[in-house]
């Protein structure tokens, strides 16, 4: 699923049409897909956040949260807020944007909660400002929100949230995003009710790796993408192995090893 926009109205302003109101449904996402750290991601049908945007005559950004997650409402400290501020600045707009957020993707759940806020804000801002940004510019705006959340401008959750399906980020600088065709797959998300902050999960990673591990990881990434494109489910399954990131991050999820063993058991 990609971002869904429901327009409320369109009002002419300064010689062009500025769509002053819209709803955005921003889906949850799964990044990395085991072996593709920071370069692969897919969009889920559920859960999703619902965001309502309005272009206002008062400069600045106003945020209202309709959930119980107690996220900051100051735009400089809010993932959606910094994206909206950047969009207004990039557009050189003297207007403002208000956003009402009904967040259904729990922060820290590993399902792209911050990416949904960032991507939803970028798409919503672009829409109410008259669709003045390119797709790459929308992604780059959303990455500003991810940097606030994790300290790094990564796009593996953002791009599937915006584009839907499975996406491959070949490069961030310059931005190069490739949609990956896939077979019809049913994705089961099992959540152990453990909250892991993205920034914490990134800080513990090793900065150097062995060449033999890199070679094995490259093979798995290539195999996974090839499996998607050739509808080879067995190849997809064989490629879902991570020898670099998961061994380090698994300490944050104590049940992971046992869970993986259970799901690999043959079904009788």
List the helices and strands and how they pair.
Elements: E1 4-13, E2 16-31, E3 40-56, E4 60-65, H1 79-91, E5 96-102, H2 113-128, H3 135-150, H4 158-163, E6 166-171, E7 176-180, H5 198-203, H6 211-230, H7 233-239, H8 246-249, H9 256-263
Parallel strand pairs: 4-5
Antiparallel strand pairs: 1-2, 2-3, 3-5, 3-6, 6-7
Helix pairs in contact: 1-2, 1-3, 2-3, 6-7
Describe what you observe in this structure.
By secondary structure, the chain is an alpha+beta fold. It folds into two domains: 4-180, Ribosomal Protein S5, domain 2 (2-Layer Sandwich); 198-263, Alpha-Beta Plaits (2-Layer Sandwich), CATH 3.30.70. 36% of the residues lie in helices and 25% in strands. It contains nine helices and seven strands. Strands 1, 2, 3, 4, 5, 6 and 7 form a seven-stranded mixed beta sheet that branches. Strand 6 (166-171) and strand 7 form a beta hairpin. It is globular and about 60 Å long. It starts with a strand and ends in a 5-residue tail after the last helix.
